[in-house]
Amino acid sequence: MKNPDDGSPPRRKTGRPLSFDRDAALEQAMLTFWRHGYETTSIVDLTTAMGVTAPSLYSAFGDKKRLFLEAARLYAGDPEAMARDIQGAPSAYDAANAMLTNAAVIYTGDATPKGCLLASATASGSAAACEVQGAIADIRKSMASCLEARIRNDVATGKLSAATDAAALAGLVMAVAQGMSVLARDGASRSFLLAIVGATMAAWPQE
Fold first, then answer.
1. What are phi and psi of 189, to 5 degrees?
2. 3-state helix, strand, coil in the chain (%, to 5)
3. How far is the C-alpha of 192 from the C-alpha of 171, rounded, in Å?
């Protein structure tokens, strides 16, 4: 059997039914990755938080990388629902304001780690970490693309000036969201992050 801390699954039997609540275990894994980041979270950290053995973790989730990606999808939510929320907002301004306000609230929750789980996946020399970073980047790009499409729609309908750079404006929102994650991890309060949201939205272009 390989060392469970290296993230590689041991040889195991298949076909056994799960003896634990998979959804509850996944939520605990999400919180553990959120708190410690991808690379510094060990299999021991995960099994302790999830209340499972290493063989059970590998049987249910595959390996550390696949567990993180599943936890990240749980954190990010349904991408189709996100797209509907953005498109269903009264305007791109409202969609961006909601995204940043929700981020400020999530990053400063009393019962969850500070900051953003998606910001905890940092690239390194390992192939697994780079693959994780690429998958997380795709989630962020999807969010930005949805907002950019909504901004373009507002330009087309006259809610925003034709001179508006939709890609840059969507990028600004994403950059502020990621920056707030860093500030939250540094101890910034919710009220301070919400003030940043207000300052950002005050700079939103007019018609």
1. -80, 165
2. 70, 0, 30
3. 21
Global pTM? Answer: 0.84
Determine whether domain 19-73 maps to CATH 1.10.10.60. yes
Which helix (H) or strand (E) element contains residue 55? helix 54-61
For tokens 């269903």, the residue is 88
Contact between 38 and 122 under an 8 Å Cβ cutoff? The reply is yes
CATH class of 77-202: mainly alpha
**DSSP track, 159-204:** SS-TT--HHHHHHHHHHHHHHHHHHHHTT--HHHHHHHHHHHHHT-
Q: Where are the domains of the chain?
A: 19-73, 77-202
Instruction: Determine whether 115 is exposed, middle or buried from the number of CB atoms within 10 Å of its CB (0-12, 13-18, 19+).
Output: buried
Rounded to an integer, what distance in angstroms lies between the CA atom of residue 6 and that of residue 54? 12
Distances (CA, A) of 125 to 13, 36, 172: 32, 19, 29
Q: For 2-59, how does the pLDDT look when each residue is reduced to its tens digit (9 = 90+)?
A: 444 555 555 544 445 567 899 999 999 999 999 999 988 999 999 999 999 999 999 9
Please tell me the distance from the alpha carbon of residue 88 to that of residue 16, in angstroms, as a whole number.
44
